[in-house]
Specification:
With 587 residues, this protein is mostly helical. The protein is 76% helix and 2% strand. The protein has a two-stranded antiparallel sheet with strand order 1-2. Strand 1 and strand 2 form a beta hairpin.
């Protein structure tokens, strides 16, 4: 048997080729992966670029939107401006067509008043100019007034009477007021007889004007005329002849009765002046801070004392009105201005067109900003508004608004005089209303302790009572701290036992006993030290409480003493003694 080993040949070519192909595939895959990575980087860069472009587009869109909004606003304003310019022309044409003659009448009236002051125009010239206006303005109330005035200047009584009759038919109230003011203005000649006649005529017209006033529907201008009347701007109001011509105070009484027909006026005035006086009060919490914190009766104290403190300011307010000088020249100028305003004011018929013209003019001034123009016009309306209110309210507003100089001060005097029967009683009620509720004795409350005092003189006794009260609490808390006496006794017993054991040669037991004695003594010493520290802390705490409490009692008592001195020394000023409250005597 042959020993030769036969080796078979195996062809590995396929395996080698497979490995090669696998390696190539892996290499290709790696290449593709790298390419994908590069593509991802590119995509990421593109995303960043797109994001930037989106942000840029957003910014451009925002800018475009802003420019669009601005453009729309500008176009709207331009359109509003153009519309306003067109409307101004239309409105003014309409005003000229409908009310151009009205404006001519007003200008003529003002011209006549100025011409008569300066004596620069002939009477026949004035008469000719005024008569033509009567024909061109068949409805306007001022036209016959102009004719009547020019006829009066020309001494044409017949024409003046006819014109006055027509003027009264068209607007009795305005006509009466115009001629009252004209007569007053004309009563400044060197001829006393002429002045007297014109003053008398002035009062006749005033009597007519006052007689037409409605007590519950009066304009603020009524105060101007009443103030001028009382202060003699129209002439001597105390003259018997004048009183018979114009019984002004009877009108005032009548107006007050009309307002108070259901008894409400007295209550309304009482409530108003109570609030007026109350508004001058300032709480005393900051002046007496301790008492405010510890006294349960403090609100009753505050209610009365703050009224006492307000009295000087209230009296000074009315005293300032009483002592303010009355400038008759300013009053006369004010009356003349009222005349000029009355004859130059647009008629009610014109109001809608005039308001429209004002709005369009404002839009023009603001270059088309319609919304702003409307807000401005609305604010002007509110400022110019003079809603009619009752006579008593007009008097009240005259007292409590504006400054205290010149003519306004005199208006306050006049108003105070007519309302004195409400102002003075409300003042006395304000002062005494809380007097009976002022405590005769107060309580001082500190923590859970309280004491009472009538005049603060017993503050020393209160501090003693408070200290005793606190010390009871101190003793109770100290009693909770137990001294470790039993532990000390045990240590001593162990020490004695150890000594005895040494005496009987029981050394091991003696050593153990002594060690235990030392350990127990150490624990006792620690416990005893803590007990002393706790007691010291408790004593310090209660010492501080006593000091603070006694200090609070001292301050509260002193503040109460100061308040009693203020209350007991209070002598109220009487505003009823001021001359502005003496209208009954004046009447």
């Amino acid at each position: 048997m042959s020993n030769e080993v036969q080796v078979s040949y195996v062809d590995l070519t396929n395996i080698s080729n497979s490995i090669a192909r696998t390696a190539a595939a892996v290499s290709a895959l790696q290449s593709q992966t790298t390419q994908i990575g590069n593509n991802l980087i590119t995509v990421n860069d593109n995303v960043v670029l797109v994001d930037r472009k989106v942000n840029q587009v957003d910014s451009q869109l925002a800018d475009l939107r802003d420019r669009f909004v601005k453009m729309v606003k500008e176009q709207r304003m331009a359109a509003a401006l153009q519309r306003a310019l067109t409307e101004i022309i239309r409105i003014r044409q309409e005003l000229e067509q409908k009310y151009g003659s009205y404006q001519l009448v007003r200008n003529t009236m003002l011209g006549i008043l100025q011409a008569t002051d300066l004596a620069l125009v002939r009477n026949d010239t004035i008469a000719t100019a005024s008569e033509q206006l009567m024909i061109s303005t068949p409805k306007y109330w001022l036209a016959p007034c102009v004719v009547a005035l020019s006829a009066w200047i020309a001494d044409n009584k017949e024409l003046a009477d006819r014109a006055l009759k027509e003027a009264l038919n068209r607007d009795k109230e305005k006509t009466a007021l115009v001629f009252a003011l004209v007569c007053r203005r004309a009563a400044n000649t060197d001829d006393e007889k002429v002045n007297h006649a014109r003053n008398l005529a002035c009062y006749k017209w005033l009597n007519m004007y006052f007689g037409m006033q409605k007590a519950k529907m009066m304009r603020s201008s009524i105060i101007v005329y009443i103030n001028a009347y009382v202060n003699g701007v129209f002439g001597d109001p105390n003259s018997e002849e004048i009183k018979q011509t114009c019984d002004f105070y009877s009108y005032v009484d009548q107006w007050m009765k009309e307002i108070d027909e259901n008894g409400s006026l007295a209550a309304e005035q009482a409530a108003y002046w109570a609030q007026f006086y109350q508004s001058r009060c300032v709480d005393i919490n900051e002046t007496y801070p301790t008492l405010a914190k510890v006294c349960p009766e403090f609100e009753r104290i505050n209610a009365y004392v703050k009224r006492i403190n307000a009295v000087d300011e209230i009296f000074a307010h009315f005293e300032g009105i009483a002592n303010a000088s009355v400038d008759k020249t300013k009053l006369a100028n004010m009356i003349d201005n009222e005349l000029l305003t009355l004859v130059s004011k647009f008629d009610d018929e014109e109001a809608p067109l005039r308001e429209e013209e004002e709005l369009m003019s404002e839009i023009k001034r603001l270059k088309g900003d319609e919304e702003l123009a409307k807000r401005i016009i609305q604010a002007r309306k509110i400022k110019r508004a003079d809603p009619p209110i009752n006579f008593a309210e007009q008097l009240t507003q005259a007292i409590t608004s504006g400054d205290q100089s010149g003519s306004l001060a005199s208006a306050r005097k006049t108003s105070c005089a007519f309302l004195s029967k409400y102002i003075v009683p409300a003042y006395h009620k304000f002062i005494g209303e809380k007097r009976d509720d002022f405590p005769q004795e107060i309580t001082v409350k500190v923590d859970d302790w309280k004491g009472n005092t009538t005049d603060g003189a017993n503050k020393g006794k209160m501090k003693e009572d408070y200290t005793a009260h606190v010390n009871k609490k101190r003793d109770a808390e100290l009693a909770t701290i137990k001294s470790p006496t039993a532990m000390l006794i045990i240590a001593l017993v162990l020490a004695v036992v150890g000594a005895i054991c040494f005496a009987v040669d029981a050394a091991p037991v003696a050593i153990i006993g002594l060690i235990c004695a030392v350990v127990v003594f150490v624990f006792w010493n620690k416990k005893n030290g803590k007990a002393k520290a706790d007691k010291l802390a408790i004593n310090n705490k209660y010492d501080q409480i006593v000091n603070n409490g006694c200090s609070t009692i001292e301050k509260a008592a002193n503040e109460w003493i100061a308040i009693l001195a203020l209350v007991n020394g209070f002598v109220p000023c009487n505003i009823g003694d001021l001359d502005i409250m003496m209208i009954e005597e004046a009447k």
